[in-house]
Hints:
Layout: E1 6-13, H1 21-40, E2 46-53, E3 58-64, H2 68-76, E4 80-84
Antiparallel strand pairs: 1-3, 1-4, 2-3
Amino acid sequence: MESAPTVHVSLQIQDPIPLPREERRRTLERIFGEIQRDVLVPRGANGDLATLSVSGQTIEADLPADAFEDTVEALAKRHVRVDRLRLMRVAPPF
């Protein structure tokens, strides 16, 4: 069975989180976990918490193409910036 088309994106928390690094990591994990539960999963999207960048306040996610605009609007209400990512394959030699 073929899966539905998705758009690979980064999600960035726009509000500054002025905490020490480890505390900021835990806060970002909590915030992105809530976003995953409340925004992404109900729309068939998936955020990858393993891609968390503490300094960038980002994770990567796959958003269903047919729910892309609705998902972006819901994320914007939570002050989350969405940027499309382009995956590139680099062929050897390096």
